[in-house]
Every structure is written in C-alpha cells, then in structure tokens.
Design goal:
Oligomer: single chain
Helix content: 25-40%
Number of strands: 11
CATH class of the largest domain: Mainly Beta
Radius of gyration: 26 Å
Strand content: 25-35%
Shape: globular
Strand order of the largest sheet: 6-5-4-3-7
Length: about 325
C-alpha cells in the first residue's frame, strides 16, 4: 500500500531514531519511493523542528534519540484520538503553532508500542477531515503569541486594525481579555479605548500590534459566556427576540438534527416540515443564517426579522436583474 506523506514522515522519524544511520537510497527502498521524495520528507522534518543530521563518515542520516519524549502509557483509543487531532484536524482549522502540534504528535507516535503505532498508521489512512472555508492566517503564530502574553500579564496593546464597520484602518488601545476561535477565524475580545466598551477583533485584520508599557485591571466578573449571552454567534446587540421559523420538508431534517442555539425548541409536523424557535440577542447574525436556506424557510416571527429578510431578498433580486 502506498504511504501518505505524513505516514512516510513518521516512518522516517521512527527509523532514524533507532540509533542507526540510513542513506537516502536505503530510506527510499524502505518506503517504496524515490530519493527525491525522501529529500522532500526530510525537509518536512526539518520544517517542524526535528533535529536530524547527516553523518558524512557513516554516509547516512540519524536523529538524536534524546530529542523525544520518554515512553508514555496510552491505550489505543487515547493514542488514536490524539493523532486524529494532530494529523487530520491541525491542517483543517486555524490552529496556532500548527508545526509544534504536528511535532508533538510525531513525538507521541514515536513512543507508542509498535502494535498500537502500526494500527494507528493504518487506521489514519482511512480517516479524513474537511473544515469549512478559513480566513487567511499569515501571521497567526506571532499575533497569537503576543496577545496571549499580553492577556497573561494584563498588559495593554495598541493595534492598527482594518475595520469593516468603520470602512477604514483604525488605531485602538486595547485591554485584551480573551482569545476565541469561532467558525472560521480567531478573535480577541477586550475593552476598546475607541469604543469605550468590550469589542471583538479578528486576528487576521490586525495590521500592526505593539505591546504598551501599561497594565489594566480586568473588569470584575468578566465571563465570556456572560458577554456572549444569547447572541446567535458572537455579537450580542442588547435586545432579546423570540424567533419562530418554519422549515419546509426538504431541509427540516437537516436543520433539526443540529443544536444551533441553547434556547432551541423544535416542533415537527405531519407534513414533514418543522417549526424551530429561539430566544436570540440581536437579529443581524441570525438573518444571514436564515438567508442560507433560501426558499426553504419562512419567518413566522418577529415581524422585524421578516421585514429584514424580505428587504435583503428584494435587494438581491433587484441587483441580479440589473446585470
């Protein structure tokens, strides 16, 4: 069976750690691949920080065995769950320090008993993960690290931020409280000097950041769950709405099998449709979710939400008819 890239990297890592020297030809023969592929895999090891070296006298590659963890006692399910996270999920979501996570997984795998390691390697070839579209994260590690340090030290930061709401770049002095991953991107929540309130800033829109020589006192009792309250996702608007929607049979099952909100109540009807109710803070975020179901959902209440959806739909029709 042809090995995947990550499986080859693991095999090379395990082989080189056995305190022997292996040539590129020897590795290629063992893996059933070409020398060129072996060199690419060695570069992957180098990229994630594995200190392999080439011994010119012995004519082969090896890894210092002291680089790895001592043996750890993991059962099959524990090992497989960790490797699914590091191998399959780390590349699908915006995971800070992804290379470090991959290296941690390789270290763990390298110290598993041979039977468990072989089983995991075989099993992982038949497991895949596909996340939704992700926001770009070119400087995620650096930005995440600086923010995490500021939160830990309760240090103020200054950010130059591209604000979609203001339609321009803004300078904000921020008291950072919390880092949160939501759907497609990472955000920092904190007290904004510009807005005089707690705001949410998307990390990939931070253009510049500087840690200031100032500290702050965190607001007493700040809790993420309290701040988010009953927001549909992450933007509370300060007013609770009783929302009632009717989903037609084509999508009713698909919608109701997911717990979209903590207040969700579902009533199924004999015609296959479903009435779904929520108590949600704000109409903005849920409006876009509703629009994603097109002509398969009716807004029964409140009237303000129905009017908003109708207006957006009319605008969509007008814009597309004008083309």
């Amino acid at each position: 069976m042809k090995l995947s890239r990550i499986s080859r990297v693991v095999r090379i890592l395990t082989t080189l750690q056995a305190e022997k020297n292996y040539t590129a030809d020897g590795l290629a023969e063992m893996l059933g691949t070409s020398r060129r592929t072996v060199f690419r895999d060695l570069k992957e090891l180098q990229a994630i920080g594995v200190p392999y070296h080439y011994d010119a006298k012995a004519g082969g590659y090896s890894i210092d065995p002291e680089f790895f963890l001592p043996p750890i006692d993991l059962n099959l399910q524990e090992a497989l769950s960790l490797l699914v996270l590091t191998r399959k999920l780390s590349g699908q979501i915006q995971l800070p320090f992804r290379k470090s996570a991959l290296l941690a997984g390789l270290k763990i795998e390298n110290n598993l008993p041979a039977k468990i390691r072989d089983y995991c390697n075989t099993t992982l070839q038949y497991i895949s993960a596909r996340a939704g579209a992700q926001a770009p994260a070119n400087r995620l590690d650096a930005t995440f690290t600086e923010l995490q340090k500021a939160i830990a030290k309760k240090g103020k930061i200054n950010i130059q931020y591209h604000s979609l709401f203001e339609g321009k770049d803004i300078d904000v002095e921020l008291c950072p409280y919390h880092l949160m991953y939501n759907h497609r991107a990472w955000y920092v929540l904190g007290l904004s000097s510009m807005h005089k309130s707690i705001r949410t800033f998307k990390l990939n829109r931070i253009k510049k950041m500087k840690t200031l020589d100032k500290c702050f006192l965190e607001r007493r009792g700040f809790e993420l769950s309290e701040y988010l309250g009953r927001a549909w996702s992450m933007i509370p608007e300060g007013r609770i709405h009783n929302i009632r929607l009717r989903f037609l049979p084509k999508v009713a099952e698909n919608v109701t099998e997911v717990q979209w909100h903590s207040t969700q109540k579902v009533t199924r009807t004999s015609d296959g449709s479903a009435t779904v109710e929520f108590r949600v803070d704000g109409l903005g975020e849920i409006s876009w979710w509703i629009l994603g179901y097109g002509d398969q959902v009716q807004v029964l209440r409140p009237k303000a939400l129905r009017s908003r959806i109708l207006q957006i739909a009319r605008n969509m029709v007008r814009m597309n008819e004008e083309i």
